[in-house]
Amino acid sequence: MNETQTIDGARVLARAGWRIIPLLGLAYLVAFMDRSNISFAARTMNADLGFSATIYGIGGGVFFLSYALFEIPSNILLERVGARRWIARIMISWGVIAAAMMWVHTPWQFYTLRFLLGMAEAGFFPGVIFYLSLWFPRAARGRAISRFYISGPLARVVMGLLSPALLAMNGMGGLKGWQWLFVVEGLPAVLVGCLVLWLLPERPETVSWLNPAEKAWLSGTLAQEGAVVRHGNPLAALRLPAVLLLGMVGLLTTCAYYTFTLSEPQILAQATGWSGVQVGYLVSLGGLVGAGGMLFTGWLSDRSGTRMPFMVGSTAMVLMAYGLFAVDGGRTTGLIAYACYVACWGSVTLSVWMLCTDLVGPGEMAVATAMVNTMSQTGAFVGPILWGMARDATGTFHRGFIGLVCAQVLALMFVAGVAQYRRQRA
After folding, report:
1. Range of 321's domain?
2. Which of 221, 27, 216, 259 lies closest to 133 in space, CA to CA?
3. Residue 14, Cα to own-chain centre: how many angstroms?
4. Fewest Cβ atoms nearer than 10 Å: which of 158, 175, 265, 273?
């Protein structure tokens, strides 16, 4: 029996996971915090600068416009330059821009910096999904993606605990509390970018912490799935049915998600009547629940070898949460709706990415993941603007929640299309 036949594959993958995923997870935690921390800054920043809900909605959404526009070019460059250098570049540039948000005074400064932040961050998330597909075989990929992806809900824990404290620094050093929030939560991205440049390995063949037999096993296992890199054609990726269907699910669910996220503290404060600090604790608790739900979905999905039940069930539960917010703004109903939302939304988006890596050929993965994320971020651009306009017109969140319900219903229809396509391929 030769050496490659006695390799403990689980041990090899566990070692790769510990070397790669915590660093990428830390990077995503910082990224999520920097794109979403305006939700905590909104109340005082908007009051200080005289921003209406529409201005705030445009600024919140324009990040996702530039993110979508530069997503595919960024992933193509990542393929050519290498993940380590390109992800480090992304993080360092967005950290500087995120911290510069402290100097915003006018709507156009707000729009410009949010646009530049999206342009700087473009390609990070689909680039990581592509990168993980070069390290983890399909049978282990759900767990790998979920362990990276939980940094999104965990970022909510950090924001919920840290942001109220930073806002309470109002007046210290001549700065407003929201200015302290932007600079303190922005600059860590620069440090993490330097760590990525130093520590992130490019491919299994290049690392020193696997022996030659383990490298051969991992490379051979991935090669059997066709995990070879070739430069993709964006138009060819757009024609793939899986990309179109998953892109539409992403567009509609991400539209609703980020629309809610950018007003989350305000929504929860209005529903519960609680203070900013109490709402921060609630958001932190929601982040822990969301992380647990995401890890469970990734584990059980890999264990059962199926993805669709998790996508259907979680999408339906999030629809119910938006519906509860729409029909009743009371504390009890609001807390029940929020619990459903935080427990299940992560499973919606995780299912999109697990299915994308299952249904798209590895050779097209880089461009296909970028295309799905481009479509998703387009929805995140439109939603907050319409939400802000509805809030200015009516003075409440009610009409906006009706829009989120409609978006989620349409998403369920496309989920059904994904299920039919998967059955046809089986």
Report:
1. 7-425
2. 221
3. 24
4. 273
Mean pLDDT, the chain, rounded, equals: 87
| Mean pLDDT, range 140-144, rounded to an integer | 85
From the list 262, 271, 258, the residue with the least C-alpha distance to 326 is 271
Q: Residue 122: which of 365, 353, 374 has the closest Cα? A: 374
From CA 136, how far away is CA 189, in angstroms rounded?
A: 26
Q: Is residue 2 domain-resident?
A: no
d(CA 362, CA 366): 8
Q: For 204-233, what is each residue's pLDDT tens digit?
A: 888 889 888 888 898 888 887 764 444 455
Angle between helices 9-36 and 188-199 (to 10 degrees): 160
Rounded Cα–Cα distance for residues 169 and 181 (Å): 9
Q: Which tokens sit at 300?
A: 């059980």
Q: Is there a domain that residue 256 lies in?
A: yes
Distance CA 388, CA 382 (A): 10
User: What secondary structure does DSSP assign to 320-389, as a single string?
Assistant: HHHHHHHH--SHHHHHHHHHHHHHHHHHHHHHHHHHHHHHS-GGGHHHHHHHHHHHHHHHHHHHHHHHHH
**Cα three-residue angle 143-315-155, rounded to 5 degrees:** 55
Domain-embedded: residue 264: yes
Do residues 35 and 117 make contact, with C-beta atoms less than 8 angstroms apart? yes
**Rounded to whole angstroms, how far apart are CA atoms 213 and 46?**
59
Q: Are residues 53 and 399 in contact, defined by beta-carbon separation less than 8 angstroms?
A: no
CATH number at residue 189: 1.20.1250.20
Pairwise CA distance, residues 287 & 302, whole Å: 23
Return d(Cα 124, Cα 71) in angstroms, integer.
8
For 423, the token pair is: 């059955």
Residue 405 counted as domain residue: yes
**414 vs 261, more confident:** 414
If you count them, how many residues does the chain have? 426
The arithmetic mean of pLDDT across residues 250-265, rounded, is: 90
The structural domain count of the chain equals 1
